[in-house]
Amino acid sequence: MRIDIVTLFPDFFQTPLATGLIGRALARGIATATLIDPRDFTQDKHRRVDDEPYGGGVGMLLKPEPLFAAVESLPVHSPREVVLMSPQGEPLTQNLLRHFAGLAQLVLVCGSYEGVDQRVCDRLVDREVSLGDFVLTSGEIPALAVVNGTVRLLPGTVGKVDSLKYESFEAGLLDYPQYTRPPEFRGWCVPEVLLSGNHAEIDRWRREQQTERTQARRPDLWERWHASTEQATNR
Protein backbone atom coordinates (compact mmCIF):
# COMPACT_ATOMS: atom_id res chain seq x y z
CA MET A 1 0.00 0.00 0.00
CA ARG A 2 1.21 3.49 -0.83
CA ILE A 3 0.48 6.38 1.57
CA ASP A 4 1.21 9.96 0.54
CA ILE A 5 1.02 12.75 3.12
CA VAL A 6 0.74 16.32 1.89
CA THR A 7 1.97 18.42 4.81
CA LEU A 8 3.56 21.78 5.60
CA PHE A 9 5.47 20.03 8.41
CA PRO A 10 7.15 16.91 7.02
CA ASP A 11 9.59 16.79 9.94
CA PHE A 12 6.63 16.09 12.24
CA PHE A 13 6.31 12.58 10.79
CA GLN A 14 9.94 11.51 10.77
CA THR A 15 10.15 9.93 14.23
CA PRO A 16 6.59 8.50 14.48
CA LEU A 17 6.88 6.78 11.10
CA ALA A 18 10.18 5.19 12.12
CA THR A 19 9.01 3.97 15.54
CA GLY A 20 7.34 0.84 16.88
CA LEU A 21 5.01 -1.47 14.98
CA ILE A 22 4.30 1.06 12.23
CA GLY A 23 7.99 1.83 11.74
CA ARG A 24 8.75 -1.88 11.37
CA ALA A 25 5.89 -2.34 8.91
CA LEU A 26 7.16 0.51 6.74
CA ALA A 27 10.73 -0.79 6.95
CA ARG A 28 9.54 -4.21 5.76
CA GLY A 29 7.69 -2.70 2.81
CA ILE A 30 4.19 -3.65 3.99
CA ALA A 31 3.36 -0.03 3.17
CA THR A 32 5.27 3.02 2.00
CA ALA A 33 4.87 6.56 3.31
CA THR A 34 5.89 9.57 1.23
CA LEU A 35 5.91 13.15 2.54
CA ILE A 36 5.09 16.00 0.16
CA ASP A 37 5.51 19.68 1.11
CA PRO A 38 3.14 22.02 -0.78
CA ARG A 39 5.74 24.77 -0.47
CA ASP A 40 7.75 22.89 -3.08
CA PHE A 41 4.94 23.60 -5.57
CA THR A 42 4.63 27.35 -5.09
CA GLN A 43 5.60 29.82 -7.81
CA ASP A 44 6.81 32.81 -5.76
CA LYS A 45 10.14 33.37 -4.04
CA HIS A 46 8.52 33.41 -0.59
CA ARG A 47 6.99 29.94 -1.17
CA ARG A 48 3.66 31.24 0.07
CA VAL A 49 0.91 28.67 0.60
CA ASP A 50 -1.70 30.79 2.40
CA ASP A 51 -3.70 33.96 1.83
CA GLU A 52 -6.53 36.03 3.31
CA PRO A 53 -10.11 34.82 2.84
CA TYR A 54 -12.34 36.65 0.39
CA GLY A 55 -15.09 38.55 2.19
CA GLY A 56 -12.93 39.13 5.25
CA GLY A 57 -12.56 37.08 8.39
CA VAL A 58 -9.99 35.97 10.92
CA GLY A 59 -6.91 34.00 9.95
CA MET A 60 -5.54 32.65 6.69
CA LEU A 61 -6.55 29.89 4.29
CA LEU A 62 -4.41 27.41 2.40
CA LYS A 63 -4.37 28.34 -1.28
CA PRO A 64 -5.62 25.86 -3.87
CA GLU A 65 -2.69 26.01 -6.31
CA PRO A 66 0.02 24.36 -4.16
CA LEU A 67 -2.32 21.65 -2.87
CA PHE A 68 -3.62 20.75 -6.33
CA ALA A 69 -0.09 20.72 -7.74
CA ALA A 70 1.23 18.57 -4.88
CA VAL A 71 -1.49 15.92 -5.25
CA GLU A 72 -1.38 15.98 -9.06
CA SER A 73 2.38 15.35 -8.98
CA LEU A 74 1.81 11.92 -7.45
CA PRO A 75 1.57 8.67 -9.38
CA VAL A 76 -1.88 7.12 -9.25
CA HIS A 77 -2.44 3.60 -7.93
CA SER A 78 -6.00 2.34 -8.11
CA PRO A 79 -8.07 2.13 -5.99
CA ARG A 80 -7.06 5.45 -4.46
CA GLU A 81 -8.64 8.06 -2.21
CA VAL A 82 -7.56 11.61 -1.45
CA VAL A 83 -8.56 12.56 2.09
CA LEU A 84 -8.49 15.98 3.73
CA MET A 85 -8.02 16.01 7.49
CA SER A 86 -10.57 18.58 8.64
CA PRO A 87 -12.84 19.29 11.66
CA GLN A 88 -15.68 19.47 9.11
CA GLY A 89 -15.14 15.87 8.03
CA GLU A 90 -16.90 12.63 8.84
CA PRO A 91 -15.75 10.97 12.09
CA LEU A 92 -12.89 8.51 11.83
CA THR A 93 -14.14 5.02 12.67
CA GLN A 94 -12.77 1.51 12.63
CA ASN A 95 -14.94 0.74 9.60
CA LEU A 96 -13.38 3.66 7.75
CA LEU A 97 -9.88 2.47 8.66
CA ARG A 98 -10.75 -0.95 7.26
CA HIS A 99 -11.88 0.75 4.07
CA PHE A 100 -8.59 2.64 3.82
CA ALA A 101 -6.63 -0.57 4.41
CA GLY A 102 -8.26 -2.04 1.30
CA LEU A 103 -6.96 0.73 -0.97
CA ALA A 104 -3.83 0.60 -3.08
CA GLN A 105 -3.10 4.28 -2.35
CA LEU A 106 -4.18 6.72 0.33
CA VAL A 107 -3.36 10.42 -0.05
CA LEU A 108 -3.74 12.44 3.15
CA VAL A 109 -3.90 16.22 2.89
CA CYS A 110 -3.20 18.01 6.18
CA GLY A 111 -5.25 21.14 6.67
CA SER A 112 -3.76 24.11 8.50
CA TYR A 113 -4.42 27.72 9.55
CA GLU A 114 -8.18 28.49 9.39
CA GLY A 115 -8.76 25.85 6.74
CA VAL A 116 -8.42 25.41 3.00
CA ASP A 117 -9.92 27.00 -0.08
CA GLN A 118 -13.31 25.35 -0.69
CA ARG A 119 -12.28 24.34 -4.21
CA VAL A 120 -9.87 21.86 -2.61
CA CYS A 121 -12.80 20.26 -0.78
CA ASP A 122 -15.08 20.31 -3.83
CA ARG A 123 -12.67 19.29 -6.60
CA LEU A 124 -9.50 17.72 -5.22
CA VAL A 125 -10.37 15.45 -2.30
CA ASP A 126 -12.71 12.47 -2.18
CA ARG A 127 -13.71 12.93 1.45
CA GLU A 128 -12.96 14.92 4.59
CA VAL A 129 -12.20 13.11 7.85
CA SER A 130 -12.14 14.34 11.44
CA LEU A 131 -10.87 12.82 14.69
CA GLY A 132 -13.77 14.32 16.61
CA ASP A 133 -15.62 17.42 17.66
CA PHE A 134 -12.59 19.51 18.52
CA VAL A 135 -10.03 21.64 16.70
CA LEU A 136 -6.25 21.17 16.51
CA THR A 137 -3.63 23.53 15.12
CA SER A 138 -3.26 21.46 11.94
CA GLY A 139 -4.06 18.12 10.34
CA GLU A 140 -0.77 16.36 11.04
CA ILE A 141 -1.89 14.62 14.25
CA PRO A 142 -5.13 13.33 12.65
CA ALA A 143 -3.18 12.19 9.57
CA LEU A 144 -0.74 10.28 11.75
CA ALA A 145 -3.68 8.61 13.51
CA VAL A 146 -5.07 7.51 10.13
CA VAL A 147 -1.68 6.12 9.06
CA ASN A 148 -1.31 4.23 12.32
CA GLY A 149 -4.83 2.82 12.30
CA THR A 150 -4.63 1.83 8.64
CA VAL A 151 -1.17 0.26 8.52
CA ARG A 152 -1.78 -1.90 11.58
CA LEU A 153 -4.65 -3.57 9.70
CA LEU A 154 -2.48 -4.54 6.73
CA PRO A 155 -1.46 -8.22 6.53
CA GLY A 156 1.90 -8.80 8.18
CA THR A 157 1.91 -5.74 10.46
CA VAL A 158 0.42 -7.39 13.56
CA GLY A 159 1.98 -10.72 14.48
CA LYS A 160 -1.17 -12.31 15.94
CA VAL A 161 -3.87 -11.65 13.36
CA ASP A 162 -6.58 -12.99 15.70
CA SER A 163 -5.87 -10.13 18.10
CA LEU A 164 -7.39 -7.74 15.56
CA LYS A 165 -10.71 -9.60 15.76
CA TYR A 166 -11.24 -8.99 19.47
CA GLU A 167 -10.57 -5.29 19.80
CA SER A 168 -12.86 -2.42 20.69
CA PHE A 169 -15.30 -1.59 17.87
CA GLU A 170 -14.57 -4.74 15.85
CA ALA A 171 -17.84 -6.31 17.06
CA GLY A 172 -19.58 -2.96 17.48
CA LEU A 173 -18.85 -2.89 21.22
CA LEU A 174 -16.06 -1.62 23.44
CA ASP A 175 -13.42 -4.10 24.57
CA TYR A 176 -13.78 -6.12 27.76
CA PRO A 177 -11.49 -5.57 30.81
CA GLN A 178 -8.21 -7.48 30.62
CA TYR A 179 -5.77 -8.61 33.31
CA THR A 180 -2.32 -10.16 33.55
CA ARG A 181 0.01 -11.39 36.30
CA PRO A 182 0.12 -11.15 39.29
CA PRO A 183 -3.32 -12.53 40.20
CA GLU A 184 -3.41 -10.19 43.22
CA PHE A 185 -1.95 -6.68 43.40
CA ARG A 186 -2.37 -4.46 46.48
CA GLY A 187 -5.41 -6.49 47.45
CA TRP A 188 -7.05 -6.12 44.02
CA CYS A 189 -7.73 -9.54 42.53
CA VAL A 190 -8.22 -10.77 39.00
CA PRO A 191 -11.83 -12.00 38.52
CA GLU A 192 -12.02 -15.67 39.41
CA VAL A 193 -13.65 -16.62 36.12
CA LEU A 194 -10.49 -15.65 34.22
CA LEU A 195 -8.46 -18.06 36.34
CA SER A 196 -10.96 -20.92 36.02
CA GLY A 197 -9.85 -22.31 32.67
CA ASN A 198 -13.52 -22.60 31.66
CA HIS A 199 -13.44 -20.93 28.25
CA ALA A 200 -17.19 -20.96 27.75
CA GLU A 201 -17.67 -19.08 31.05
CA ILE A 202 -14.81 -16.72 30.18
CA ASP A 203 -16.39 -15.91 26.80
CA ARG A 204 -19.75 -15.27 28.45
CA TRP A 205 -18.16 -13.02 31.11
CA ARG A 206 -16.29 -11.06 28.47
CA ARG A 207 -19.41 -10.45 26.40
CA GLU A 208 -21.31 -9.31 29.50
CA GLN A 209 -18.49 -6.92 30.34
CA GLN A 210 -18.48 -5.59 26.77
CA THR A 211 -22.19 -4.83 26.80
CA GLU A 212 -22.12 -3.28 30.29
CA ARG A 213 -19.08 -1.14 29.49
CA THR A 214 -20.53 0.03 26.19
CA GLN A 215 -23.88 0.90 27.75
CA ALA A 216 -22.16 2.93 30.48
CA ARG A 217 -19.47 4.67 28.44
CA ARG A 218 -20.84 4.89 24.89
CA PRO A 219 -24.64 4.74 24.84
CA ASP A 220 -24.53 5.84 21.18
CA LEU A 221 -22.55 2.72 20.25
CA TRP A 222 -24.81 0.58 22.41
CA GLU A 223 -27.94 1.83 20.65
CA ARG A 224 -26.46 1.12 17.22
CA TRP A 225 -25.25 -2.34 18.24
CA HIS A 226 -28.54 -3.20 19.91
CA ALA A 227 -30.54 -2.07 16.88
CA SER A 228 -28.35 -4.00 14.44
CA THR A 229 -28.56 -7.13 16.62
CA GLU A 230 -32.35 -6.95 16.78
CA GLN A 231 -32.55 -6.39 13.04
CA ALA A 232 -30.36 -9.44 12.36
CA THR A 233 -32.49 -11.55 14.72
CA ASN A 234 -35.73 -10.53 13.00
CA ARG A 235 -34.56 -11.43 9.51
Describe this structure in words.
With 235 residues, the chain is an alpha/beta fold. It has two domains: 2-151, 3-Layer(aba) Sandwich (Alpha/beta knot), CATH 3.40.1280; 167-234, Trp Operon Repressor, Chain A. The protein has nine helices and nine strands. Helix 3 (64-72) packs parallel to helix 5 (118-124) and helix 4 (94-101) crosses helix 6 (140-151). The chain is elongated and about 70 Å long. 22% of the residues are buried.
Radius of gyration: 22 Å
Structural class: alpha/beta
Strand tally: 9
Question: What fraction of the residues are assigned to beta strands by DSSP?
Answer: 15-25%
> Widest sheet: strand order?
2-1-6-5-7
Mean pLDDT: 93
Total of DSSP H or I helical runs spanning 4+ residues? 9
Using the alpha-carbon principal axes, give the shape.
elongated
Number of domains: 2
Helix content: 25-40%
